[in-house]
Design goal:
By secondary structure, the protein is mostly beta strands. Helices cover 12% and strands 54% of the residues.
Length: 291
């Protein structure tokens, strides 16, 4: 009888340990966004912010660096009467050694997601649960392109990557982080100075109990307008062979497309860029300090 009771107790203990272990694994696997973003009044993070400007496309981007400080200053209600947090951004002025007002953001933590308003644009930064490859439409509240006309910003699909993984960011080594891929740069077209091209990448990294520790966004669009020049029409010659004549395809009276379609006719031209359009935006934001 004692042996039977002992065996029953051991079996019960084994089953209990098994389910506790499973529960612990599940808790680690299915995380809440509040582990990574948990707003508190008085919390601040200082970032090194590298702003990329497309002053001269085709040459090199111009990068300007600043120090910015994001501080949660108050608990407020948003325009839907939901509890939110006001965030002030200050930018350090090395000339005066002062922190000057730069921008205001709004964080709205909800049961299943957290929303973030920047420049009157509402983003869904994170959702629950935080699990590998879980996806959502982070820009679904935004109807228009933000960075350039060709990036279809509202359709970007965010997803979690490297959930609860260690990562070094700047001078910090964080034990638990999550990366949010907002747009995958591998889907973009290669830059071509004579044709339309674009580039979009965007991702953010959040650290356990800290918040946003790294952001990398780069988005540009380029459109070239070309004209043909130095055109040569190669055409059959009576009696055999060919001859070559120069034509000006920019003249309204010269229909070079029709000439090109004639039997045994060929048209060769040089193509030059007469003008081009470009626009772009880029930001790298790296944590340097926090409380």
């Amino acid at each position: 009888m004692k042996n039977s009771s002992f065996r029953l107790l051991m079996c019960f203990s084994f089953v209990s340990i098994y389910f506790l272990a499973c529960k612990k694994t599940d808790e680690k696997k299915f995380l809440s966004y509040k582990q990574f973003i948990n707003p508190q009044v008085g919390k601040y993070i200082i970032y090194k912010l590298d702003s990329t400007v497309t002053l001269s496309f085709g040459a090199s981007f111009v990068v300007k660096s600043y120090l910015v400080k994001d501080t949660i200053v108050a608990k407020v209600l948003d325009n839907q009467n939901r509890e939110s947090y006001k965030v002030y951004r200050l930018q350090y002025n090395p000339a005066t050694k002062n922190w000057d007002a730069s921008n205001t953001f709004l964080l709205t933590p909800l049961e299943t997601k957290i929303e973030y308003i920047e420049n009157n644009l509402r983003y869904v930064k994170m959702i629950n649960p935080v699990t590998e490859l879980k996806s959502w439409q982070g820009n679904s509240y935004i109807g228009q392109p933000v960075f350039n006309a060709g990036n279809f910003f509202s359709t970007w699909t965010y997803y979690y990557k490297d959930v609860d993984q260690p990562r070094q960011v700047g001078t910090f080594n964080f034990a638990n982080t999550v990366t949010i891929v907002q747009y995958d740069s591998t889907e973009n077209r290669v830059f071509d100075p004579k044709n339309y091209s674009q580039y979009n990448k965007s991702y953010e990294i959040y650290a356990d109990s800290v918040g946003l520790v790294y952001k990398d966004i780069l988005s540009w669009e380029y459109q070239a307008f070309t004209i043909p020049t130095n055109c040569k029409l190669i055409r059959p010659k009576t009696g055999g062979g060919v001859d070559t004549v120069s034509v000006d395809c920019t003249l309204d009276a010269t229909n070079c497309d029709s000439l090109r379609r004639l039997p045994n006719y060929r048209l060769t031209c040089d193509t030059i860029v007469s003008q081009f359009y470009y626009t772009g935006y880029g930001v790298k934001q790296t944590i340097v300090s926090h409380n």
